[in-house]
């Protein structure tokens, strides 16, 4: 029998991060949570088979004993999330069970140890990446969920677009909904993550949520990618076959496709305007809205209604007045992603509208209208 004691609040935080990496299938390994204590460090490991999540922290109280065990990740996560932040948690491990004791509640909570086919405690195999690593800003990785996620393909069609394409120029996402050219929503996040082209699966990128701000490292061996930072290690398979199929160069050219004219507008004012006009937009019309750019600002008129409003410019350079139809719901969602005070709308080509702020370019295609 082995015992260890940890302060409740950091213990809860570690467990909450670790269980996010557990799979949703009925495969044995995806149900598991490995817990290991060595010295003053406690480590949790989960897997969804294609990747593993490992979180560690030196938060074990002096006098604790080393231990290793494996329990059901979902049940353990649910219990720990409901423990109070105050007090301590004591883990007591035997060959067949793990008991959790909370000093604050006085409760004792038993968990059966998960055995493998030979009766031993299951140990999740860790994937290894031996390639050299390069430094990465962990906030840059987290920005993929903030900016790129909205443009990632989510259905089963066009699987080459169901991921995040990272290269020396930044990280791209594209939903490819439509036909011909760049016909869907796209995001060019110009933060450099890696020199080598990598296609991140969406499930792996979701794990970036558990990363803290600061510096970390990333390494890639041609198939597996490893991200390390702040006591977290994420290792998973990449979408190797999709790299060559991804329209990276076409998307990169979007950055300069609308260099002819621009209008910079206050982000909060723009969102308020779009929120008011969304009340009048019709889902049956795909939220179609006419947007006119001219020297006086941006005139937004919901399709087939008299609902109209002008967004005043903070700065502009408009070569000529242009008018297009766009999905106002998509436009509102893209503007809301930015947190800077102003957002710049660039236009001029017939492909679509680009929004720029915070080193990110969002692309929204124009809609066909009955007037054309």
Major sheet details: 9 strands, antiparallel
What is the percentage of strand-forming residues?
35-45%
DSSP helix count?
A: 7
Q: What's the total number of strands?
A: 25
What percentage of residues falls in helices of 4 or more residues? 10-25%
Radius of gyration: 25 Å
* Distance between the ends: 77 Å
In one word, what is the shape?
Answer: elongated
Q: What features would you describe in this structure?
A:
The chain is of the alpha+beta class. The protein has seven helices and 25 strands. The strands form four sheets. The chain has a nine-stranded antiparallel β-sheet with strand order 13-10-11-12-25-24-23-17-21. The chain has an eight-stranded antiparallel β-sheet with strand order 5-2-3-4-16-15-14-9. β24 and β25 form a beta hairpin. α1 packs antiparallel against α2 and α6 packs antiparallel against α7. The radius of gyration is 25 Å and the shape is elongated. The mean pLDDT is 93.
């Amino acid at each position: 029998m082995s015992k260890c004691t940890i302060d409740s609040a950091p213990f809860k935080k570690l467990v909450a991060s670790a269980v996010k990496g557990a799979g949703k299938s009925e495969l044995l390994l995806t149900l598991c949570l490995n817990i290991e204590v060595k010295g003053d460090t406690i480590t949790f490991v989960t897997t969804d088979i294609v990747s593993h999540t490992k979180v560690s922290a030196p938060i074990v109280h002096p006098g604790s004993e080393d231990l290793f065990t494996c329990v059901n990740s979902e049940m353990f996560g649910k219990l720990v999330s409901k423990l109070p932040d105050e007090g301590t948690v004591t883990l007591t491990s035997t060959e067949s069970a793990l008991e959790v004791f909370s000093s604050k509640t006085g409760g004792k909570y038993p968990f059966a140890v998960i055995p493998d086919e030979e009766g031993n405690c299951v140990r999740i195999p860790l994937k290894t990446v031996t390639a050299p690593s390069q430094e990465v800003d962990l906030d840059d990785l987290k920005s993929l969920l903030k900016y790129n996620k909205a443009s990632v393909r989510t259905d089963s069609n066009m699987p080459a677009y169901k991921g995040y394409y990272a290269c020396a120029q930044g990280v791209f996402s594209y939903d490819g909904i439509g036909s011909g050219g760049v016909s869907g929503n796209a995001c060019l996040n110009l933060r450099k993550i890696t020199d080598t082209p990598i296609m991140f699966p969406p499930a792996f990128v979701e794990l970036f949520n558990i990363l803290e701000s600061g510096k970390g490292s990333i390494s890639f061996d041609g198939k597996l990618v490893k991200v390390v930072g702040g006591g977290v290690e994420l290792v998973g398979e990449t979408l190797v076959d999709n790299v060559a199929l991804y329209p990276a160069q076409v998307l990169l050219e979007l950055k300069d496709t609308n260099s002819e004219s621009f209008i910079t507008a206050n982000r909060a004012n723009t969102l308020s305007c779009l929120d008011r006009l969304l009340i009048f937009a019709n889902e049956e019309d795909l939220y179609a809205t006419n947007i006119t750019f001219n020297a006086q600002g941006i005139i937004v008129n919901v399709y087939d209604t008299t609902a109209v409003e002008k967004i005043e410019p903070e700065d502009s350079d408009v070569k000529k007045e242009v008018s297009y139809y766009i999905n106002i719901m998509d436009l509102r969602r893209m503007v809301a992603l930015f947190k800077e005070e102003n957002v710049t709308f660039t236009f001029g080509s017939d492909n679509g509208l680009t929004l720029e702020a915070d080193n990110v370019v969002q692309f929204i295609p124009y809609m066909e209208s009955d007037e054309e």
